[in-house]
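Lecture notes, unit on protein representations.

Consider one protein chain, 144 amino acids long.
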Amino acid sequence: MTQNAYIKLVSASTQQNITTDELINLFNYYKEITTKAGEQLKWDYNHSAFPYEIKEQANSEGKWFYLSAINDGYFAILIGIDKEQVKNEDGTETEQMYIQMTLPEKSTAGDKGKANEFCKFIAKKLQGELHLFNGRVMYYYPRK
């Protein structure tokens, strides 16, 4: 059974819109900082920290891409962006963008662990509202 986690870009987030190119840049930044950590530890950490290859399909139309495993113990993580209508406190509706991470049926426990790690990293960078695979919510934006 597929599982989903969501990073919602709320009004208090650092940005309210994101593209797949910006998300790919965040993943490249993640790879860069974990590679530097590995160099400091004199350990080839980047293959363990990011055991995936970023792939885009021609028909994705800038809406989704996926991480394909390059190591054993992993399969894939699908990542997409979309918008939803949400009700504000005053009763009006606004459009809110979100990032969705999906674990396909063949995903492993390793994929779920990495997806949780990536979700937390992205939510922290964008100061978003993270809805984890288990239904719990983590708030990374300043709350009043």
